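Predict the 3D structure for this chain.
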Amino acid sequence: MASFAAIIIYYAYKIQFVEGSKWVALQTEQTTELHNISAIRGNIYSADGSLMATSVPVYNVVMDTRANGLSEDIWKKNIDSLALMLSTINLEKSKKDYLVILNTARKDLDRYVPLLKKISYNQLKIVKKFPIFRLGRNKGGVIILTENIRDYPFDRLAKRTIGQLPKNNERGIGLEAAYNEQLKGRDGKSLMQKIVGGNWIPINDDNDIEPLNGYDIHTTIDMSIQDIAENSLKNALIKEKASYGCVILMETATGAIKAISNLKRNDNDEVIEANNYALSETTEPGSTFKLASVLALLEDGYVNDYETVSSENGSTKFADKTMYDSEHGGKGMLTLQRAFELSSNVGISKFVWNHYHNNPTKFINHLVNDFKFGQSLKLGFPDEIVSAVPNPQSKKWSSTTLPWMSIGYSIETTPMQILTLYNAVANKGRMVKPMFVKRIEQTGKLIKEYNTEVLAEKIVSDKTLQRVMPMLTGVVEHGTATNIRSKIYPIGGKTGTAKIVENREYVEKYKSSFCGFFPADKPQYTCMVMIFKPTNGIYYGALVAGPVFKEIADKVYAASVNREPTHLQDSVKSTYIAKTAGYTSDYYSITNNKAKVYSTQEWSNASTNSSHIKISEASTVANNQMPDVIGMGMRDALYLLENKGLKVQYVGKGKVKFQSIEKGKKIYKGGTVVIELI
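Done. Predicted structure below.
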């Protein structure tokens, strides 16, 4: 027994004093690790600086009931009060519930007790003052864990374009995925200790390696126009009982995408955002593709203004297949322009067949080399798909491929690629790449700026453009789209109606589209509307997609198209602007630099007298105080308040008439303010 005891004493001494440092190091190695601390993801802004997506910090409160400094005396005196205060934050649990949780954890020596989840910063400041917790981490056992969640101030507006990161092995979508490297930042490191139950808690309050926050993305999206486009498309899907659709609005000169919406009507008749149809839906485009056929014919000099073809009785035969117009009976002899304006399948296909059937490669070269079909636009989105252009040398090419391709069948392309072609024509032949992001910044510092990228300086000659522009305006003035003609501004474009293939056969289901630009005399915007499977008895492009285009064009033209107000001469009349408040530079623009301006500040007030507008400096407040947004429009108010870190809830339209937090009151990031507009 003595020998056995001696051996135990010997090894105890050896383990504790001789090998002690070794075993302590091993224990530390097995129970401590460097864990990633997620960087704060960058913000996504609209063209006017409004927040479209931002990372909001939320906090989880955990308690170590066996913290070194948490004595039994402190526990007994304060646990009742702590349970009561916790119940005021989490209303789903009562004081009694929290007492049971805390006392049980204390008895079981639990060092990791989740108490509150995803509370705001303002709530956290209150929680830190609770009994016991106010003693800090060592004496009070409180552990604060931070995580960031993505918040979308405009809710579902442009949500599909903003996108999301990959989840469950699925690829990400939208801007979040396309610019993930810039947005994600660089994670930091924090030394964590593993405790009983397998949970990890930070050893120190400070991180070992601080995270580097992500860059901010400033998009080209105009949220006002986005709202117009989204609502117009939504209403059309409901009215026409259509399956899904998309709208894209592009700034003609720059290629900046000002609005893009992809909506789907589900079985419950709810309209939701689904796939990115604008970039990933490759289908036979139908008659909107006839523009490419006409451009090729004119560029090669094959058709003059007087050459005609017979529309026969509204049908003609190529090999063993019959081509039909939408109406039987025919339209007589047709020039190329009239065939285009009336969207005659027979007329367009005959012109193309007559001049290219012996050399279809020449026609295909126009499509691929000049008009960029079959080439990626390289927009950076994971779900972007490239057009499928038939090859005359392939086994799939037949004697009917060319005539059917000339009217938008036997070829598959996306709405974005069709829009890019129409925009090039509107832009005097200059094809520009669609652009979604204008610049990248980090805390206000410019990191990268994106300028307009030219895909082709001239897709066709000026002579061709001079002949095709009257055709596009003719479609609206006296062709298939007279229902969207405007008395205020000219529109150019083309309707499209195409049958849909299901199970490798054409069925009596249709895709309706309209692609065009406005104002046609000086195009500033180009717009593509495509609606799939309308089932309310109407399916023609002019009647289904055309009204959506017209509604968007009318509202955008009224609100933002640059035109010189006829009543602005040497002075600015008071009828041009009502009393309001807003961004100073906007007043310079809207008054054509003719207002009397007495402001050097970013934000100003405007007032009028009998003949002039007077712009004076708005009163300013400190960063942590509530500004005065009374009189501002919604966009200005949202911009100003969101950039102060406030969450904004608004009702109504027009100018701000009420704000729930008075001017000058102290505000906190993450707080909520309600504004009412009238």
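The mean pLDDT is 84.
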